[in-house]
């Protein structure tokens, strides 16, 4: 594979962070930045995901891997990568878009590595699950608990997703049954690690629900989230309970979810239940979500650079040996992990 890598959305928060980490760890690769406005250097490419006519430059620059860090709802970049035999890594898709894109890829003949990495924090949760239980077949239930700080740096995409979907039902899995639920309902108390303590957590939609049940065949999967502010967590639950989100405009909902701070920690915890009991893995990124998501994308990229994976369609955790993934995360200076192998 050519070591020419294109990061589409490379001028955004996560895209810039991917480029910084990738350059520091892999100085031999050439990185191009794709954006709607282009840029000042030969490595800045004018690419608009809504206009496939702008993709010609990808072939001209002999790009071997496209990292997509901007939402491409119509999957133009995915289709282009498949048609032209270019490796592809997408970290952006909410669950409905991921399901659609996966179906497109599975129904096409692929001559490159097509990798979907849209799970929580760049798709690492599903790999870490396998560090807790030796065999996925032994897992009865996975619960993911997310601690989100409004002080954390956040890009627009997650805020827009919440604004667009907070009033819509999504799916969790109970004994392999699809159960429709909504965000910020069904409260559950959870004792978070790293000094956070006991918090009330509510339903939260991430692609790991689909991946862990439909791909890894785990019968019971749920995800719940709490904010660093107990008051905000309670308020969002109250808004959902009395259906206030249903009457707010999209603009008003974006104002609610669109705040971004100057940086804070990001924490998630995975609880895996087998017939032998329950075990937990806790992960903390002191630099927040953008850093952790970008690092995950870089770790997946490094696996592709090894050129040891055959042309196929993958979810990103399938690129890794679980124990090796865990050790790479532990080795990163801003990440702390408790539990696992």
TrEMBL record:
<dbReference type="InterPro" id="IPR036291">
    <property type="entry name" value="NAD(P)-bd_dom_sf"/>
</dbReference>
<protein>
    <submittedName>
        <fullName>Saccharopine dehydrogenase</fullName>
    </submittedName>
</protein>
């Amino acid at each position: 594979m050519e070591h020419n890598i294109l990061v589409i959305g490379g001028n955004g928060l996560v895209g810039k962070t991917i480029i910084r980490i990738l350059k520091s760890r892999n100085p031999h690769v050439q990185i191009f930045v794709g954006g709607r406005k282009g840029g000042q250097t030969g490595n800045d490419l004018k690419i608009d995901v809504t206009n496939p006519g702008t993709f010609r430059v990808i072939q001209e620059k002999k790009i071997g891997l496209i990292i997509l860090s901007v939402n491409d709802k119509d999957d133009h970049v995915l289709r282009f990568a498949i048609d032209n035999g270019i490796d592809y890594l997408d970290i952006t898709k909410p669950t409905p878009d991921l399901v659609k894109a996966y179906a497109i890829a599975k129904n096409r003949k692929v001559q490159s590595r097509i990798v979907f990495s849209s799970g929580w924090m760049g798709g690492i949760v599903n790999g870490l699950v396998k560090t807790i239980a030796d065999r996925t077949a032994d897992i009865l239930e996975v619960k993911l608990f997310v601690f989100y700080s409004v002080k954390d740096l956040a890009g627009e995409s997650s805020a827009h997703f919440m604004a667009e979907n907070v009033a819509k039902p999504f799916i969790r899995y109970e004994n392999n049954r699809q159960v429709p639920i909504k965000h910020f309902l069904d409260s559950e108390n959870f004792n978070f690690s790293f000094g956070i303590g006991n918090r009330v957590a509510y339903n939260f939609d991430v692609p790991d629900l689909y991946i862990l049940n439909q791909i890894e065949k785990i019968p019971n999967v749920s995800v719940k989230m709490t904010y660093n502010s107990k008051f905000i967590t309670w308020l969002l639950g109250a808004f959902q309970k009395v259906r206030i989100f249903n009457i707010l405009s999209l603009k008003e909902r974006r104002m609610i979810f669109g705040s971004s701070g100057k940086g804070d920690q990001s924490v998630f915890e995975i609880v895996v239940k087998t017939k032998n009991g329950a075990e937990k893995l806790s992960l903390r990124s002191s630099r927040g979500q953008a850093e952790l998501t970008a690092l995950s994308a870089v770790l997946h990229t490094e696996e592709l650079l090894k050129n040891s994976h055959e042309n196929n369609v993958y979810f990103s955790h399938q690129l890794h040996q679980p124990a090796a993934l865990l050790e790479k995360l532990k080795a990163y200076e801003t990440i702390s992990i408790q539990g696992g192998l």
